[in-house]
Design brief:
heterotrimer, A mainly alpha (177), B alpha/beta (507), C mainly alpha (195), B: 507 residues, alpha/beta, Fumarate Reductase Iron-sulfur Protein, Chain B, domain 2, six-stranded mixed sheet, four-stranded antiparallel sheet, 15 helices, globular, C: 195 residues, mainly alpha
């Protein structure tokens, strides 16, 4: 009896000590995966995912507490890239992605209050007090912060028009599948 | 050619019925000038041209309508004299049916040319000057790639190209526009290619012509006879012989590596029609405003080659050639690699070598079946790829896997889809995958740009805050100074007034 | 020497842990979606099984047998295996974070992988010597890795195939696994005796 207790205690102690040393030896500072994921994110810190900015979302995704589909501006393309990085399979059909969208200002309603300019994370809106504002297409990420801020609902998210340069051949439909 | 190739003939490519005759043997006709011409601003690879005319303005034939914008771009010129009606969107010659900016021209029927400035002796000019004149004339690759010719000249000169390969392959079925150019304008082609040789510093030129065009070979041989450095080389008729990499391999035995350009193996490829256009640009000072285009297909009553102005509608060409039946499918270019047209109201562009109107029989396409892994596509693929593996991965959404099988080397020639016994639209799979990959790349670049913008915004906010603080500090200092001054002033005033009052009191 | 070679072949192929003994089916179905993670799993399991076999042999022959503590066998073995898995987890997390993420829950689950404990217990049951135990453990792990790779490769191709809707996903994978198992049963007919 005594031998059994002693031997098990000893075994546990030795293994525990070994693991403790190994943990110190193989200590990982932070999570390199988080940095890699953060590099993939849009980086506009728009906050639509509910996390404090892109770094917050990246650590949540790396920890598995947020789905790879958490980023609305990143859309389907980002979800796919993240799933590939993490080696998990996702059903892209589940991602609500109405295609890329950007903000547009309805000129007849805009009162030139400048509020949207202040909340735009990428400085995509130009304008001045009492002047009609405008959105620069190339810089807008479609985060929607300005839409919530506009007092006259002059800013709306519009789908990005498909141009010849952006058009993609559809995938052929399978017969009988 | 190695011993192995002597015994085992390369098996790439396919031999579709060429359907080139009788259209190729009909004498060249000229399309009567249409009333309206629609000149798209982008008829080339690269940035679209920027309009330099205004609606309502009168222009002469050959006048600049839109100038090149950016390093890789080409200008467009007025195909006839007349008035600019509008600068607006028209349906692009593109399978999507989307719109594209174009300049609409109402012809006045005079065909009055702008003052032309022909060059008497192009060989006396510096190569840079030839490239400049070619670029100014809006010459682009007329074989279908529409890459600005002058950009290629400069590339060839920089990489010290020794051999110019002139592509008279025209391997696509139904098409005979290059054939017509070589038959009718052989002297222009030969002069043009010699100018190109001079422009790129090439020592010799090889003209590859498929052996199903004996008349063109004879005409070109006669025209090239005085020049020892120009060799006419008949090549076996096989699709896609007219593709750069294949033609280079057949003519020189050199294989262009997957990630390299032709110039890096010491050769440069130009189409015969491009050479003729270079001749016209220099010897006659004429901008590229018209081209020879094949109108063919089962639905066309009188197929043949037409000399047509750029910007004429496909409908105008078809109306002139006559329609025997309602076309079941319209294609701009060849049946293998051409562009499916949504309707006939699209303009003719510089790169369009043919307009095909297929009848129902020619257009019939059996429904796609499952892949039976027969491997026909791998034998046919001129690039030595595995189309079936790429397509199955693309179907499963694994684009990275498809790229691993060499998707980026695919030249979209359509051999695989043509031989497929299950009629799988393989090329569409590849086009789809490439589009998706390009979209992904664009998204990545956009992400990077966004990150830069966010950083800049952060810097701007920090700078604003700093400047505000500095300004506030300055104001405060000024206020303090003013206050001190005021205090001093009141003090001295008080002192002086006190003195005054003291003085006043003292007497 | 020949004996060890025979032992290696018979543990890896004839008595394959997964397809003949049906041990360790959980990572077999779970981490076989692509070749990369399957290979990573195979490597990790190989390391754990070989290490565990060596450790348990020493435990059995120097502690449990001399003191008559046979009834503590499973307890002690699990302890050793769990420690080895923890160690592997730390190493993988340190050196290959992407693989760590890809293996996910299946990495700590090697602890409860019945192949590991099964192989360790079998070596005791068969009363093997130390070197034999090592070869037996390594051979079993090799068999596990080979089967993982084969299955993952087939599933990669299966993902490209047009599978009827009712069979798509897990069902067709099980059909595939059973066919693979049938194929491995065929090794039972190998005749090692010289004619």
């Amino acid at each position: 009896m005594l031998i059994a207790i002693l031997s098990l205690t000893l075994l546990g102690a030795v293994l525990g000590l070994g693991l403790g040393l190994a943990a110190r030896r193989f200590h990982v500072e932070g999570d390199p995966l988080v940095a890699q994921i953060e590099a993939l994110m849009p980086g506009s810190n728009c906050g639509q995912c509910g996390f404090p900015g892109c770094p917050g979302a990246a650590s949540a995704i790396a920890a598995g507490s947020a789905p790879v589909t958490a980023c609305p501006p990143g859309g389907r393309a980002l979800a796919k890239a993240l799933a590939e990085k993490l080696g998990i399979a996702i059903d892209l059909g589940q991602v609500a992605d109405a295609g890329p969208r950007i903000a547009a200002v309805a000129e007849e309603i805009c009162i030139g209050c400048c509020r949207c300019i202040k909340v735009c994370p990428t400085d995509a809106i130009v304008g001045a007090a009492k002047q009609i504002h405008n959105v620069m297409r190339e810089a807008c990420t479609g985060c929607g912060n300005c839409v919530e801020r506009c007092p006259t609902e002059a800013v709306t998210l519009q789908p990005v028009p498909v141009t010849l340069q952006h058009w993609v051949w559809p995938r052929p439909q399978l017969a009988g599948a | 050619m190695g011993l192995l190739e002597r015994f085992f003939k390369p098996s790439w490519g396919v031999h579709p019925d060429d359907h080139k005759r009788p259209a190729a043997d009909v004498p060249l006709r000229t399309l009567p000038l249409p009333e309206r011409l629609y000149v798209p601003l982008q008829q080339h690879v690269g940035g679209p041209a920027r309009p330099v005319v205004l609606a309502g303005q009168k222009v002469l034939k050959g006048q600049l309508l839109a100038e090149a914008q950016g390093n890789i771009s080409a200008p467009v010129h007025a195909p006839t004299s007349g008035r600019v009606l509008a600068i607006g969107e028209v349906t692009a010659p593109h399978p999507s049916g989307l719109a594209q900016l174009a300049i609409t021209l109402a012809s006045d029927g005079d065909e009055r040319w702008l003052e032309r400035e022909p060059v008497a002796d192009p060989f006396a000019l510096a190569p840079e000057e030839i490239a400049r004149l070619t670029a100014a004339a809006g010459v682009v690759g007329l074989g279908g790639a529409t890459f600005p010719a002058a950009v290629k000249f400069n590339l060839g000169r920089r990489l010290k190209v020794s051999t110019l390969i002139v592509n008279g392959g025209e391997c696509e079925p139904y098409l005979s526009s290059d054939d017509a150019v070589m038959r009718v304008r052989a002297a222009e082609v030969v002069d043009g290619l010699r100018i190109v040789m001079h422009a790129i510093g090439a020592a010799n030129a090889l003209v590859g012509i498929e052996d199903n065009k004996p008349e063109a070979i004879a005409a070109m041989r006669a025209a090239a006879a005085p020049f020892g450095d120009v060799a006419i080389r008949p090549v076996p008729a096989r699709y896609p012989m007219g593709s750069d990499k294949q033609l280079i391999q057949v003519l020189t035995g050199k294989e262009v590596p997957a990630d390299a350009r032709a110039a890096e193996v010491g050769v440069l490829v130009h189409n015969v029609s491009t050479c003729a256009a270079v001749h016209r640009a220099l010897r006659r000072g004429e901008a590229l405003v018209e081209r020879i285009v094949t109108v063919n297909g089962g639905a066309v009553r009188a197929p043949g080659n037409l000399l047509a102005p750029i910007g004429a509608r496909v409908a105008d060409l078809l109306a002139f050639a006559g329609l025997a039946a309602e076309p079941a499918r319209l294609i701009l270019g060849g049946p293998m690699m051409g562009t499916l047209l949504p309707h006939a109201n699209v303009p003719l562009v510089k790169g369009a070598s043919g307009v095909l109107a297929f009848d129902a029989r020619e257009a019939a396409r059996p429904a796609a079946g499952p892949c039976i892994r027969c491997g026909s596509c791998t034998v046919a693929c001129p690039m030595g790829l595995l189309p079936l593996e790429m397509a199955s991965r693309i179907r499963a959404g694994d684009l990275a896997g498809a790229t691993g099988f060499g998707l980026s080397d695919c030249i979209s020639c359509g051999c695989c889809a043509w031989v497929c016994p299950s009629h799988i639209p393989l090329v569409q799979y590849f086009s789809h995958a490439r589009g998706e990959l390009a979209a992904g790349e664009r998204a990545r670049l956009r992400n990077e740009a966004t990150r830069r913008l966010v950083e800049q915004r952060g810097e701007r906010l920090a700078r604003d805050a700093r400047e505000k603080a500095a300004a506030a500090a300055k104001r405060k200092a000024e206020r303090d100074a003013a206050k001190a001054k005021a205090a001093a002033a009141t003090e001295s005033a008080a002192a002086s007034s006190a003195a005054v009052s003291a003085k006043a009191v003292s007497p | 020497m020949t004996a060890y070679l025979l032992l290696l072949i018979s543990t890896a192929l004839v008595n394959n842990v997964v397809l003949v003994k049906f041990l360790g089916l959980c990572p077999f179905m779970g981490v076989s979606r692509n070749m990369d993670s399957a290979f990573g799993m195979g490597l990790a399991t190989t390391f754990v099984i070989t290490l565990a076999c060596a450790a348990t042999w020493m435990l059995e022959h120097w502690l449990l047998a001399p003191f008559g503590l046979g009834y503590l066998r499973i307890l002690c073995f699990i302890l050793v295996i769990a420690a080895a898995v923890q160690f592997v987890e730390m190493v993988v997390k340190h050196s290959a974070p992407a693989l760590y993420q890809a293996l996910g829950i299946y990495l700590p689950l090697i602890t409860t992988n019945c192949a590991v404990l099964g192989v360790a217990l079998l070596t005791v049951q068969e009363k093997m010597g130390f070197v034999e135990t090592l070869v037996y453990g390594f051979g079993s792990a090799l068999g596990f890795t080979v089967v993982m790779l084969m299955f993952a490769g087939m599933r990669e191709r299966l993902a490209l195939a047009r599978v009827p809707a009712a069979f798509a996903g897990a069902p067709v994978s099980f059909v595939l696994a059973s066919l693979l198992s049938l194929a491995f049963m065929g090794f039972a007919g190998l005749n090692f005796q010289a004619p």
